[in-house]
Amino acid sequence: MNAKRELTLDEVAEKYPEFPKLIILKTDIQRRGVYYTPAALDAVDPNIHHLIGTDIFGSRDGKLKRRPESFSLRDGTSVISTPTPLESNPYTVDFIDGRLVLTDEGNVIEEVFYWEKPDYYDKRTSNGALMQNVVGSRPQRLYLIPNRYCHFWTDDQGCRFCDIVNNLKQLKNEAEMQTRVNPKDVSETIKEALKEKGRFAAICLTAGSDFHGNEPFDKEIDYYVDILQAVGENFTAKKFPSQLICTAVTKKQLKRLYENTGLSSLTMDIEVLNENAFSHVCPGKTKWVGYKEWKKRLIDAVEIFGEGRVNTGIVSGVELVKPFGFKSEDEALKSVLKEADELASYGVSTVNMVWIPRPNSHFANEKNASLEYYVRLAWGLQEIRTEHNLKIDFDDYRRCGNHPDSDLARIF
After folding, report:
1. Exposure pattern of 22-48 as b/e (b: 16+ CB <10 Å)?
2. What pTM value is reported for the model?
3. Last residue of a domain, which of 84, 114, 144?
């Protein structure tokens, strides 16, 4: 995207010494992807390790295989990555001298550790559903995808970086996976998962958008209420540690969510902080909500959930895709951080996901941003939260692991 040569991992770490190198590495792993060698795959024990199977998005190589879901670095940092073809220049996970290691061009970079699966994964509900297909997990988070279909794709107006529907088709053809989960199955699976005392810090729900109902998105909210009430059957407190990632809905709908469930935090992903880019990248969100209205609804949510309990995610890098994107990374960074600061002034945090060009998306052949851009962006978002005294503990390194900027919150 820039004509100048991109800095290497070591060069970025040297240029930004205040930025922890392991988080820089995590960012670059997400940016470039990983390739598992045969030796690394032989080191997988399906009785112990967490294998791919429940994610809402597909892999970068377009294949559905039983491979490690992901891994952690030696400081406990969770890496959310995806298997990537060798020709795309990913990092390599290998098994050398009795250790799992991350390598680049044959050089060992770091030791890594496969995630271990929870005890409940191989059990079934009373309806016969495999529990790992009802509620997935990350190292310290339960991960629930109640609805795997996004209705924006009905008329091909889904977000251009997204492959949710194509991934669903593959999962339904090749795995035991349903489009929608049953609330009873959810309640039983959560109950079983919570038997692992101290393992999980929070529960996250994320799903595709559904604009149906008397008012747009009423049907989506109805279903979330049903699912969250099923989760809540396992808690005595009025509110439980939880996050919902959903469409930007109205204040009336937000009140229904908050008043009728134990939900404690809310994320409504705007995907890209620029109105022009938003209209190109997210045609469905533009049609049904619109950029300015999306931001207004984020601000409205703070009134209901409180400061430090509302955020929005951006798929960082898509704002540079030509022809509608910014001309340079410097221009993009200045604009994105300005808009993130504006949202923060109203109590809304912004977190970034490193964009992964996926083969079954409209942006399959595009290239994401440089490592330096992602480091500068993460640092800028963390500084904005610090300036506005916003907490991000519901979407941090423990409860998600997908955001380089919120990884910084445990250090600074």
Report:
1. bbbbbbbbbbbbbbbeeebeebbeeee
2. 0.93
3. 114
